[in-house]
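User: Okay, second chain of the day. Same drill as before: sequence in, structure tokens out.
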Amino acid sequence: MDVIWYVVGGVVFILAVVLVMWLSMKSKGRIIIQLNGYQFSPGDTIEGTVVLDLKKQVEAKALNVGLLGMYKSTSYSGSGGLSHKTRTGKAFEFKQPLDGEKVYNLGRSSYNFKLIVPRDLLSSRALGNDMLGTVVKSVKILSGNMSRIDWYVTANLEIKGLDISKKVRVNIG
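Assistant: Same drill. Structure tokens below.
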């Protein structure tokens, strides 16, 4: 019975830490990402605006914007595919600075940006978009393995303590 109380206490402690971190981040302000669209192809230019909406002055190392690809791969095994294993991680990450180290003032500030989606972005990933890639993808799905890459435009203000960050999902295909 004592073990249950230790587990419950540990869970409550972890939730309290997460809540304090979340409140600390929200007390500094937020980032808004405004985009010219949400559907892009390799070679396209993603244009937009990062809006900093700060509730107080913050000393920061940099304000960055970028493109992030997160992969999720799930493989199924066992009779009826009851057992599965999921892996996640970064497939692609690119960041560029919008502003440098300084004290960022209270209130709203806007930063325009352009990100070029690399022309070889999809061909350099696990499978290509050609006919062979499509066939191999179909075999992987039929054999019980599925994978995908979710794409995001990201922005973050690197500050002491917890960064203020935002990501917006986009489609690249």
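DSSP finds two helices and nine strands in the chain.

User: Thanks, on to the next one.
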